From TrEMBL, chains A, B, C, D:
It comes from the Bacteria. Keywords: Membrane, Transmembrane, Transmembrane helix. The keyword Transmembrane helix applies. The chain crosses the membrane at residues 12-33. Gene3D superfamilies: Hypothetical protein af1432. InterPro entries: dGTPase-like, HD/PDEase_dom, HD_assoc_2, HD_domain. It comes from Sediminibacterium roseum. Signal peptide: none annotated. The lineage of its organism: Bacteria, Pseudomonadati, Bacteroidota, Chitinophagia, Chitinophagales. This is HD domain-containing protein.
Length: 404, 404, 404, 404
């Protein structure tokens, strides 16, 4: 009996994850992939949900595991997926989030202003692809939706992809928010391919509804929880302050890491050199910097950093309607006075914003249901469905944050 | 209806943790306590078990939750515990690990050589106690076992304390190692107090056996897993190397954090100033330093750091007998040659060591079983028990680690 | 230390259930209560979900456990609940379903035509109350909503009572349908009492939404699953056939149990003698009877029984619109021909019906949300709520069942 | 895309069980298999663990699921298993317990005295095999260990077979006894075949230890729990009493089921007619009979039955040493006097017995560990193993049961 190289990884969410292909081993061993170990999936949600400290690497392995199952299920239903395609789509899901930077979404638009993480994922894939002599060619084709079997792309990125299935499962597991639990295994068993498109069997409707409702709950209860928002905004304000007072010669601002480049010289152009720097920064650089900046002479910066470290966050309120302008003005003045700062800097101490969540985005890709008689309907168009057109409109909430 | 200030925290392990006393709020809000959020409970175990990234803060909250239940159970059995004692013992468990430094046990004897974390916990408690005007007086009495109800101390620190119950439950939960699951709720229900001592009812014997076996499994399968050992040793070797080449004027060694003090000037005396510095360092400082040192001109240091970051760890073997001296010598020479270093430095690249685990330490405090007829027996003295005298001897394993 | 009489019961859903009051012990030891051990909670759902074999007794113990928690939570928020009220409301939840007969809802209107199980529960409570010298006086007052603290009644029977919380939790646990999982512990923590009425704190809105959606899912996916409906209808048809051909002198129909009385002489009047007989029948009598009747000379009866035992159930279809009359007629004729029976008996072999489910019944008692500013709103009236007026209308589905 | 006939079954223990082969469908649809739905796996354990009401059918489906996984794992390691063998071994595990009668082990030696359930399983397999035109030929060869790949037999029946893995997992799940949880998925991943024999990889040692310890815990805490023993003994005594007073013309003894045959005429010879009768009896017949007998004029019989139904069981004590003869005599006389019965009948009211459990049976088939260097060792022979020779001796406990 010959034993193929095979590794199993314990995962509290799914039990065991199996790795058994050389390309997958190569990707996981890559320093750029290992970096994901140092980036928390849920950024500052851990300030409210102390268990939510899992990493991007763990999420990516989990999504890979679901992809393995999805491929197996689809094949058992007669969908043709070649071995090459299987490996490619697995590599794709492993790498789908490789472009995330420190604290994931929380800092996405601050650290590398104007560059979306999916674009970065693609660029990094291309770099790794070169190192691997083109072994990721097919992966990249699928990732960019240029392959003739669209369902493979949809498994990586779509309304019902394994990325979402994993992050909902994992985030609810680690945060302990049972409202976010989804029946991922049942959804996987209900997937079908029809005319090349990924769909869900008729009897999977309730699981899909459950999935959409769970997502909604996670948004309001966790991702957009007012204290989570307050914490992530504080992180953003800290970086904004650093940018505002940045001078290369200010040694106390220097983080002694490649983060310095993105705080200073970076002009939005993500060339090879910039990309390499990007691939070397992680949560630790940001946290170390904040600890350092908490002693910076700039009063605003040091105050924000100290309070962030000690979890004395902005006080936040969130509500369905915009806050009254007079109320906002009053709060701003009170806060400015309390902290002895000028109104030109009040934005660091008191500000408003909007949080948006959509139960189901009909404009985006749809979740299609395949009925036994062969007809296909969008989930929102099914009679008596929980998810109806009127519910698929975006829901906006308004928040105000202030230091007290 | 008046609502007392009360906060509930989601915990994936136990559901919800309730905080409802001003002193407990004060402790949790303290910067020294919040620091535990930045220290991982299981250090480098996450390199093998990617889910094992929970923090000291989370463990401490969990142990607090079990303490709440233990107090409630004991009271319902007629054990007298005053409100003051209740609060004190809860505060004690929250603070029992406050003296842990970066990466907990992994670096315990390296960062602050010669100072045990329990000693540090006590010192820090005393500092906080002063700030809180003596509100922790009783806590400290109980923590140092100077209170006339020894069972309160035993709940915090003993063979069957809530600390162990939580770390086994939490570590097995987050690592996904089901072998470590214990019946903590059943053990709690079986606790009794007899002559002031904490004991277990007769019908709790199997749960205690299960607890001891689970602990054993966690040691061999997780805490002393050869790759975990390899990773933690690498961390130790990195810090040892820094110490060996330390010169204050070497800017490239500076971490721009209070860690510098412990790498350099610290002489083992933990005075007020040193303690304050200690309370400001955490995992991020170490990780940031390692990233920085990976570019240090010292070849040994930079190599170790780079490999650590990219998870190219020592290759480890572990076995029941010591390794043959000739074998070790051979390996050392091969390794020295491979990396072009002198034999005086081979200890950074190839070394041996011992790992020890004890199923049940009869010398330590015992786990006493209270029989229905009022007799008390040590668990290892019970006929047909799984845990017998011969099994309570320490089991030693030998490992060799080398870079390849 | 004196140990009060106390018993703990393992429960896979909640961990441990604690019994510690003499009245509760008396109730549980009562033969009428022990009878619930022989009645399955989910009737024939086990023919689709093989794990769903838990009993009424288990559900009742589970609801009791949640009641213990609910009382503790409400008290910790300052709601006054005396010890007497506590015991009474716990006794009430234990007994709330004592009036269920064999196979619970499936046979409710067949075995004791015209008598609702809640009415029977009350009658049986009164019998037990007499035996217990009036110890259930307060329980009965609360159960019948004649007590001046309506929230106690609402905990037993209301839109958000512990009965529903337990059956959803337990049924989804035992059937393995994760879609039905609710955050019962979070809902319990969010309960408040306002003006004597049970309500939910503002931040519990999402948990309530989740609860309502989970209930909806359980209805369509489990309770009204077409095969479950088919199985339960077969049970009903079997009993209807027995009634139709009943003659006291037909020995082959006799079940040698008190079930005979309800198949024959029972006239709808539930007097003391009838009630005693009712309290002696359970699932085993029905199953034994079906096995016996499978050999009865009446061809229709024996066929239905044999197929029921061997799980060769009606083939069922379910859809959003009523079935076409012509289609039904055609099916009936085909079936009659296939089995060689007359059209007067076709109702045993082919029939249609309706299944109804309501997401949230606004006409019934409401789920009220208590906002921080003291206002109270019905859950369906909250802006952006998932559960809106238009969704609270009943959803009807239509099914056809036939033997093939 | 063609969809092969495929069915998925929700299972709370494993998630989903997939059926996708015509032979497996045939077996599951067979009335003899469906009968297992009416036999509880854990007999009277539900009187102590109310959740433990799962059925033989459910266990059998669960073991089948683990077999599917085992086959997949072994194949992925290069073990050759043909499609025919795969189906045969799956059919074998489905049918391995088909020979169980009412209340499984509890009544095994009472209902069909002298016939072991494995012998009955084989006979029933042969009957079904004939109906299926020999499709079970290979299954029977494997089941009787006459096939040239012994590991296939060992997967069905051995020290580490999927039968045990499922019953431990399922019994601990349904009873809520966390001490019995095993890492079945890890054990499955560690299985290997060496020289045709089923073994465990070296790194699976701890999982095997855990498995053996869990089994031990389940025996003492559940299967041999003193109240469970008391309940099952009461069942046995009831049937013994019926046998003792049996006269065919005693109508009040008749159960109106094939159970009558085994109480009366059955002479130990399991011929075709007897087998057919055997395959028609289940728990319901016994329970119905007990309800009926509770009104029988024989005072001993009716008393036992009434107390059994109302859960007024024997009071049991269990201890490590045999009970003192004088003590036993005294108890017998007291009991006889209390109930006014003669000493010739005291065995129904007061009796002693032994319960035996073995941690690991070295005499039986062994659990072999395959080391990386190719050597094979029995688990009990491994240095420092938890399971040592001295622990593999049978542990005997002594109990006394009496009515009070």
């Amino acid at each position: 009996m010959s034993i193929k190289k095979r590794k199993i990884i314990n995962d509290p969410v799914y039990g065991f994850i199996t790795i058994n292909h050389p390309l997958i081993f190569s990707i996981i061993a890559h320093p750029y992939y290992q970096r994901l170990r140092r980036i928390q999936q849920m950024a500052m949600a851990q300030l409210v949900y102390p268990g939510a400290v899992h990493t991007r690497l763990h999420h990516s392995l989990g999504a890979y595991h679901l992809m393995c199952n999805a491929v197996m299920e689809l094949r058992s239903k007669g969908v043709e997926i070649t071995e090459e395609e299987e490996t490619a789509v697995k590599a794709g899901i492993l790498l789908h989030d490789i472009g995330h930077g420190p604290f994931s979404h929380a800092l996405e638009h601050i650290v590398v202003k104007g560059v979306h993480h999916e674009q970065l994922s693609l660029q990094i894939m291309q770099v790794i692809n070169e190192e691997l002599d083109g072994q990721l060619d097919l992966t990249i084709k699928i990732f960019t939706d240029q392959y003739h079997k669209p369902f493979l792309h949809q498994l990586i990125s779509g309304q019902l992809d394994v990325d979402r299935m994993d992050y909902l499962s994992r985030d609810s597991f680690y945060s302990g928010v049972s409202e976010g639990v989804i029946g991922y295994d049942r959804i996987l068993k209900m997937l079908v391919v029809h005319n090349g498109q990924l769909m869900v069997e008729e009897k999977g409707i309730y699981s899909v509804e459950k999935f959409l409702v769970a997502r909604r709950q996670m948004y309001w209860q966790v991702y957009l929880h007012k204290t989570v928002v307050a914490a992530e905004k504080m992180l953003v304000k800290i970086l904004e302050r650093v940018r505002a007072i940045y001078r290369e010669e200010d040694e106390m601002l220097s983080t002694l890491s490649d983060l310095d480049f993105f705080l200073g010289k970076f002009n939005g152009e993500m060339n090879t050199a910039a990309l390499e720097k990007f691939c070397s920064i992680d949560d630790h650089d940001v946290m170390h910097a904040i600890k350092r900046w908490s002693k910076h002479p700039d009063k605003i910066l040091s105050l924000l950093c100290t309070r962030f470290l000690n979890r004395k966050l902005y006080k936040a309120r969130i509500q369905a309607e915009p806050f009254d302008e007079n109320y906002i003005e009053k709060k701003k003045h009170e806060t400015a006075e309390k902290f002895g700062i000028g109104m030109e800097d009040i934005g660091y101490f008191c500000f408003t914003g909007e949080a948006t969540n959509t139960l189901y985005q009909t404009k985006d890709e749809r979740i299609n249901i395949l009925f036994k008689d062969g007809t296909v309907k969008d989930i929102s168009g099914i009679e008596n469905a929980l998810i109806q057109q009127n519910l698929s409109a975006a829901v906006k909430k308004f928040y105000i944050c202030l230091l007290d």
